[in-house]
Structure formats: structure tokens, C-alpha cells
Amino acid sequence: MTTRTLIAAFALGAAALTTAACNTVEGAGEDLQSASREVKEEI
């Protein structure tokens, strides 16, 4: 495996992990907002 291929594979893997993490954080934020709305409605 050449250095260029190794760097490209690493960059692609890092980009995939970053995208997945961003979606996870966004989903968690939406869940928290939904929960806080429901609590406000009950109060």
C-alpha cells in the first residue's frame, strides 16, 4: 500500500466518522428539545 493510498483511506475514514458523529449529536439535540417541550406542556 502506497503512502498516498494510506493517507486517502485515513482521510475518508475520518470524514465518515465526523459525518456520523454530527448526525448523532444533531439527533440527540432534537430529542432533548422534544423532551423539554413535553415537560413544559405538563407544567
Question: What's this model, at a glance?
Answer:
By secondary structure, this protein is mainly alpha-helical. Helices cover 93% and strands 0% of the residues.
Describe the structure in your own words.
The protein has 43 residues and is mainly alpha-helical. It has one helix at 3-42.
Per-chain topology:
Elements: H1 3-42
Cα(first) to Cα(last) distance is 61 Å
For the secondary structure, the number of strands is 0
Q: How many separate structural domains?
A: 1
Radius of gyration from CA coordinates: 19 Å
Largest sheet: none
| Strand percentage | under 5%
How many helices?
1
Q: Strand pairing plus helix content: what structural class? A: mainly alpha
Which outline best applies? Answer: rod-shaped
Low-confidence stretches: none
Features:
single chain, 43 residues, mainly alpha, 1 helix, rod-shaped
